Amino acid sequence: MIFNPLVALVLAVLPAHIFAQDIVYDSIHNKTVITGTWATGSKAVQTGSGFAIPSNASFIYPSVTGMSFSFADNMWFEVARYRFNSNATNPGCITGVVGWFHGTYDLVANGSIILTPNGDGYQQIQDPCAATSNFVENYNDTELYQSWRIFEDTTDGFKLHLFEFDGSPLPPMFQVSTTPQMLPTEKLRDTTESTTTSSRKRSLLRRSTNAGVSSTVCLALTVGASAMSLLALVL
Ligand SMILES: *[C@@H]1O[C@H](CO)[C@@H](O)[C@H](O)[C@H]1NC(C)=O
Ligand SMILES: *[C@@H]1O[C@H](CO)[C@@H](O)[C@H](O)[C@H]1NC(C)=O
Ligand SMILES: *[C@@H]1O[C@H](CO)[C@@H](O)[C@H](O)[C@H]1NC(C)=O
Ligand SMILES: *[C@@H]1O[C@H](CO)[C@@H](O)[C@H](O)[C@H]1NC(C)=O
Ligand SMILES: *[C@@H]1O[C@H](CO)[C@@H](O)[C@H](O)[C@H]1NC(C)=O
């Protein structure tokens, strides 16, 4: 690839959308700002002091399943989740997963959100059919949300929609507060000691999001490089 100051100059004056499809964050895309705390349905699961106790990698179990995301102005996020995964081959083996992690987020110009974990996240797996039925393990996956929208519902107020790395929608989350309720935005747990008691069951967890992010970043870089080479030819 030829890269000279002239090309740099041309690149600088070209609008950014020639290289990437930028999202316009207007009130049609998001009726309000994403900062604050959001929670699904009953709002029984919420980020902050009522859910996770990182110092001893434990949880205050909510009464029902759900998820909650918080986003702060200083670009920190926190996620709290409690869900059941059913097993099609073995309907009796419903796995409960309760998880917490925090870190920093990016609102990418193309409309995606990337959550980069801080390294102190963890999750507890309850699997009635496994040899070790209840264990805690570290959770430090980078998560990509392909897009997001915020609508205003006449009865429920502001509603955040997140779409997963593959485009599938998460259940809508409603605004709990405009100021994020989060645990301190710093490392809250020493992860040098492993909290895991079973290695066999770990393979059940999907680990694809990390790989997904890095491969698409590579693709984006390649596309960017080709655009620059083309420009060099034109000049
Ligand atoms: C939509 O989100 C963007 C990016 O965070 C923000 O700058 C903008 O103010 C939001 N729009 C509204 C209507 O709040
Ligand atoms: C973790 O710490 C909290 C608060 O200090 C305590 O109430 C809880 O029993 C502890 N849990 C475990 C599993 O040690
Ligand atoms: C479902 O249950 C079967 C049999 O116990 C097990 O082999 C399989 O790994 C389970 N699948 C998931 C996704 O948990
Ligand atoms: C957690 O993931 C982040 C982002 O990939 C990485 O920078 C960090 O080193 C990881 N921390 C641990 C403890 O694995
Ligand atoms: C936005 O860019 C990131 C890389 O920065 C990429 O992983 C993601 O797939 C892109 N999103 C869309 C909707 O193209």
Automatic annotation (TrEMBL):
Q: Where is this region: Disordered?
A: 188-207
Kindly give the Pfam families that the UniProt entry links to this protein: Rot1
Q: How does it sit in the membrane?
A: Single-pass type I membrane protein
Q: What is its main location?
A: endoplasmic reticulum
Q: Write out the GO cellular component annotations.
A: endoplasmic reticulum membrane
Q: Which organism is it from?
A: Guyanagaster necrorhizus
Its domain of life reads Eukaryota
- Drop me one GO molecular function for this one: unfolded protein binding
Gene Ontology BP terms: 'de novo' protein folding
What is the official name of this protein in its record?
Protein ROT1
Signal sequence: where?
Answer: 1-20
Task: Give the protein family.
Answer: Belongs to the ROT1 family.
Record-annotated membrane-spanning stretches:
211-234
Q: Where in the cell is it found?
A: Endoplasmic reticulum membrane
Q: Which InterPro entries match?
A: Rot1
Keyword annotations: Endoplasmic reticulum, Membrane, Signal, Transmembrane, Transmembrane helix
